[in-house]
Amino acid sequence: MLRLLTFCFMLFLSTQALAQNTVLNGKVNDAAGNPISGASVRVVGSNKGTLTNDKGEFTLTIAANASLQVSSTNYETKVVAVQGKSTLFIVLAQEATNLSDVVIIGYGSQKKKDLTGAVRKINLEGSPLSNMTNVNALSALQGTPGVNVGAVTTAGASPSILVRGQRSLSASNAPLVILDGVIFSGNLNEINTQDIASFDVLMDASAAAIYGSRAANGVIIVTTKVGKAGKPIITFTNNYGVQSWTRKPEMRMGEDFIKWRTDNRKLAGQADLSVQKVLDPKELIAYNAGQQINWLDEITQFAPLNDVNMSVSGKSDNVNYYVSGSFLNQKGVIDNDQFKKYNIAAKLDAKINKWLFYGLNFYYSARDYSGLVPRMDQATIGTPYAYKWKDEARNILDKAPAVANLVNPYWESQYDDNLEKYTSTRIIGYVAADIPYIKGLNFRVNISKNKTETVSGNFRHETYFINPDNAADIAAPTKFLANTYGSMANGLNNSWEIQNLLTYKKSIQNHNFDALAGYQRDYTAVSTLSTSASDFNSAGTTTLGYYGLHLGNPANQRVRSAFEERSNLGYLGRLNYNYNSKYYFTMNYRKDGYSAFAPGRKFAEFYGGALAYAISEEAFFKKALPVVNYLKFRVGYGQNGNQGIDPYETMANISSGSTVFGSTSTLFIYQGNLSNLGLSWEKTTTTNFGLNFAMFNNRISGDLNIYKSQTTDQLLTRSLPSLSGFGSVRTNIGQVDNQGVEASITGVIIEPKSANGIRWEATANLWLNRNKVVALTGVDADGNGIEDDDLGNRWFIGKPIGAIYDYKVEGIVQTGDADYIAKYGAKPGDLKILDINGTKRDDGLPDGKINSFDRTIVGYVQPRYSWSFANTISYKNWQFYFNFNAITGGGSENYYNSPNSTYNLSTFGNNQQQNWLNKEYWTPETPSNTFARPNYSNPYGYSYPHARTFIRLQDVSLQYALNSKQITF
Amino acid sequence: MKNQIKKVSIVLFAFCFLISCKKDDTSFLEEIRKDGLTVDNALITKAQFELALNSCYRQVQYFYNSTDGWTDYWHLGVNIDVAATTTIYIADPSAPWVDYTKINSQDAQSAKWWSWNFTLIKYANTVIGGVENKYAVISADEKKALLAEARFFRAWAYRNLNIAFGGVPIIAGPVTEPKVDFVRNTPAECNAFIKADLEYASANLPITTTVNGRVVRAAADNLLAEINIILKDYDGAIAAATRVIGGASGSYSLMNTRFGARKAETMTTRGTPTDYYWDLHEINNTDYQMGNKEAIWVAQFERNTPGGGVGYPTQGNWMVQGRAYWCRHWLFAKAGHNNTAADSIGRGASFIRGTNYSNWDVWANSNGDIRNNETNIRRKFYFNTDIAATSTQPAFKKGDLIPKSFLTAAEDSMWYCYPNWTKFGTDKHFAGDFIYGYTKDQYVMRLPETLLLRAEAYIAKGDKASALADVNTIRARAKAPLASVNEMDINYILDERVRELYGEEFRMLTLMRLGLLFDRVKKYGGAIQSATVSAKNNLLPIPQSEIDRNIGAKLVQNPGY
């Protein structure tokens, strides 16, 4: 009936249209007055339409009484009546951003409005985030609700990523990364950050279930840029940044150092406190010469980061292309820490005819991490009265600034060679066809092929072995040639993936169906060839380093070849249904197989489903609450897997090594692990409740998600009595529960009155996660009927993962604490450890002894809350962006001081070889209640945990866009 | 045109689908390991079984060379009666073994002893079970030889465990699935098990071998002598020892002439005269194949050779021994030393110091005993520079002997100057590397031990005259005053073991086997050890983690722990 009515209406319209035709010139702008290019302008009720040009203009010949439907991504669709005008100025309102986004949901896309699961989109392209010089694109996820991104401290390093907390006790907790539709198994450093258009994070099981097998830790979908309509766009960016220490420890120098040494000696009961005794003879030489060195400053380098990027992209009717090249050069804050990266990307999408599509993406990446950095630990404990060089002109370092144990931080990095390079080639192609005769049916084949080559080399030259205090060594370092050794390895990672996907989209009246069925396989083979050699005595030289291993003692030249294969396959199906964009229903099914599980246990099935109700689309709601533009409730449930083990873990593998008879080296073999024929999938079941809303003309919008997950059949390493010869075996056992809340709200705080006005948009996110170990291996050795905690791994039943199990410390033992000193045999200046238990853990019965039972949970590693607050303020051509990121809770409330205070304490009882933080410490004269005496040996192995609550101004950027008028070529 | 595209596409799709379905799902997911063996194909040929046996030899290397510090030498008598950790090195005087009251079920040394030996048992059992594999391609004789060698190692490991823990679970074959219900067997059951293994080994091990370090029949007999003493079968012990001493199980004799790598050198690099006893402990002199007729079983270590050590492959397979046992004389600033190590003084770190008992008491009657001459135990140290006179001491010249009166501070005699037993180090470091340039094979069994075991059996049997003959064989070779028959008792044997086998025998086991650890530590141990040892210490505690992990049955803890 409805269809018939529409038909009649169209008929009516078209008859009218025939009456008078007029040429209409129009322009489409946004609220700020900027032209919107590529907007679709369609005559209502006809096929007639056009797109706006890059000035937002269009021309159409239409009936004077026609209506135009104008739409563009990210803007609300508008219908305008022409009313006989020959020029028309149309302003499109920005859609509430988090509803209009097109979200990639795995093997397809959806408007965020139509989502039933918890998916979060982070746009890089065109967003202030693209101004940040993140070497690893994943760093841009910092501040995303539900996602915790680890810190990066060295050049070219990748951050760790955790989506919705830690679920797995010992298998991987890393989310699955999908690049342009296929599984990306590698380091995301491989991808040029500037090529990335957006991230979509699939948080809950109903969304991620379509990636079933490996989706238990969430899925991060990376989508790269494509060409845009209009003229070809040439982009050139050159980012230059400087990195520095977030926090640099300050070590003792000069009189502070001498005083600290003197106090040490005094506390050790030594009477002679002259500087000759306080300092080591070698230190004394430097002292008398007025020489001091701040080792931390010495190993710090100027750390610039330069990222040069160029791309050309464009789109015509049938072809879309994007080509880019980039070079990144990063130096870390520690001397000689460097990272270089070259990237080339080429993307081509072609429409052969109305129903056939091809596409090819090509990525090339070369990364170089070569070089060794000086030892940070030695730089912190190193004595300031020292020389870096013995003979700088001859490149001879001083090795031991004091008697023993201390080594010049540069000793290894200066004399050893290191090579570490990666080259990756990745090709992703697809062919897709709309199947004839059945409208809406599409078949698509995705193929990807990836090859990554790794080259690594290390060499230790004879110079490493010399003692620079011995002139004979300096004169003839070749006497150590027999000690030299080196290695080189080549690794090749080859993988492919094929997906066959059948999709069917159909709308029958207001019933909208979107179905997907697929079959996929992937395969990865890693082959490695490593060689090593030692003793270059007969070669007489090591100048060739790792490229001259063949010159080593032939008896000591070694080869090792390794090859590892893994394969996965999956059957998948999904049905999305909605009625009039009001009632939504999603169902997922996936059956997965993984080669590394035991025979007969390789397959698992995963289900997911979700319901959503957009109540705001109901007439009664619109009437009752017109201020709310959109409101949708969602509930989702699903199960995902974690394969978490490596190939061959179910087999009883033979390991090998070498031993000797006489001077003959020989192999030995032994059974390395117990076979476990029961090993299978770790599973996570998640329930997610959520809502999306937009109000005040979409000026404020946001969402809320609440979830609860259970991870069972944990791939746990279970400890066995080692008397069987096997200390542990992998088993599917144990359970961890997670629950959490994620809230996000975006508002336009200042709406511009005119195109040149100030606009301020802000997004606030808050998220939290609580997890709990529910069950472990089921051991109840104490026989109390409750499963035992795993102290070794710090896993406590009913408590979160990451518990800090340690003593409770209440300040420092003072000279006046006679009772405490007498009772616990303590000395003034010791940590005042509380006696809280007796003969059992947590029995609460102090027994006058400090022992391991007095430890308890003093805190947790995980943050209690995380929040972020991002702001974009635009004014004319200026754009100012800043983003706060914060963590509340986590760590413990106990005191913190550096374990350096105990480093090497024992050897001389005089702390002669080390340095310490330039902080207060306890002495009888200066009775600190925070830090122990400097010669405190920390006999209880206290770990000095500390709280880590922080608020950080994460990113700030200021951008000025030049008008095209200002620059003409 | 359009039709052609359609056709091409259909073919293309079909092709893609075919690629992905070339193999069926099951064979696509089948796992075949291509770069490594599994138990199913690793033990087929004789060569493969020998590689599996080599793992036993590797495990024995751990007993001598796994970590820096004193702990590698613990079972050789450190903090027992013959040696103690220097109190200053161990900053915490309440560490376990420094203080015996701190030895509990968490003790790292006990846990290490447990796991080292049970790992060795696993390796041996892999071979013992593997030879029964129906796919094994070995002859009956080869099978016997393989079994003999594997059963020897299993027996040796069970002896190490049974004496130290007093009855441990007997595992008679390979463990193939997770097992958590072990129970302790009695010491008697363990001894019977050990004896059966050793009798098989004694019957089937070769008498000689050309391979340095490989076990031979005499090793089985030497161990069998000890087990028979434990079982109070003294005649059996005497018979087993006699097979070694008398030649039935190989031709062994005490070395009494110069031999080996440095036999042409008349002086050590520090200028003391060399002798044949010194030869015994020099690098490259320790193996039977090197002409050393008293070496029965020697753990193998080799400089700059893969597998030639455990702990320090990148330091050329350095052994910590010299640094651990020797005093840090090169740091003795008071005597004019300037932190320079040298061949002549070594580079000791004084982790371990002999007790008064081993350094002086046992040498009370040692006139002429070459084991105690200046070459074999260094007792003399010299000033390195001229030292000016002070109010409390006269002036000394460079090269003067440091007198005892000069050693006034505790650290002087605890760190800088105490007797260095030459056998623990070298006066010729590899490549002039005084820190790491020392690697040497280690005697596990040497003929004097067989003689002392036989003497012990004779004493137990009441035949002191025969015991005296064996003891005096050793003393005569050492040019020591001969013992008399009324001196023959277990204490004399234990003293002679110190003089001859200090740092070689597993002193801890010797004392535990006799139930004398408590008494001897009390009497001769370091100050803290002697004050804290108690009778329960005659056995080690069962490691707590083993008790906890054994959830299917109870592993009973030893009394007192």
Strands of the biggest beta sheet of chain B: in what spatial order? Answer: 1-3
Strand fraction of chain B equals: under 5%
Average pLDDT reading of chain B:
92
Alpha-carbon Rg of chain A, integer: 33 Å
Structural class estimated from helices and strands of chain A? mainly beta
Low-pLDDT sequence parts of chain B: none
The CATH class designation of the domain at 43-79 and 104-205 and 534-561 in chain B is Mainly Alpha
Q: In this structure, how is the largest beta sheet of chain B organized?
A: 2 strands, antiparallel
Task: List the helices and strands of chain B in order.
Answer: HHHHEHHHHHHEHEHEHEEHHHHHHH
Class per helix and strand makeup of chain B: mainly alpha
What is the count of β-strands of chain A?
47
Can you tell me the CATH topology of the domain at 2-94 in chain A?
Immunoglobulin-like
Count the helices of chain A. How many?
Answer: 12
Q: What is the CATH superfamily of the domain at 2-94 in chain A?
A: Carboxypeptidase-like, regulatory domain
CATH class of the domain at 2-94 in chain A: Mainly Beta
Strand elements of chain B, count? 6
Fill in the CATH topology of the domain at 43-79 and 104-205 and 534-561 in chain B: Serine Threonine Protein Phosphatase 5, Tetratricopeptide repeat
Q: What portion of residues of chain A belong to β-strands?
A: 35-45%
What gyration radius of chain B follows from the Cα positions, in whole Å? 28 Å
Terminal CA distance of chain A: 59 Å
Could you please describe the fold and organization of this structure?
- The complex is a heterodimer of chains A (969) and B (561).
- Chain A has 969 residues and is mainly beta.
- Chain A has a domain at 2-94: Immunoglobulin-like.
- In chain A, the strands form eleven sheets. Chain A has a 20-stranded antiparallel beta sheet. A five-stranded mixed beta sheet of chain A has the order 10-15-16-13-14. In chain A, strands 3-2-5-6 form a four-stranded antiparallel beta sheet, with no helix packed on it.
- Chain A is globular.
- Among the domains of chain B are: 43-79 and 104-205 and 534-561, Serine Threonine Protein Phosphatase 5, Tetratricopeptide repeat; 279-292 and 301-440, no CATH class.
- Chain B has 20 helices and six strands.
- Chain B has 561 residues and is mainly alpha-helical.
- The longest helix of chain B is centred in the first third of the chain and has 26 residues, at 140-165.
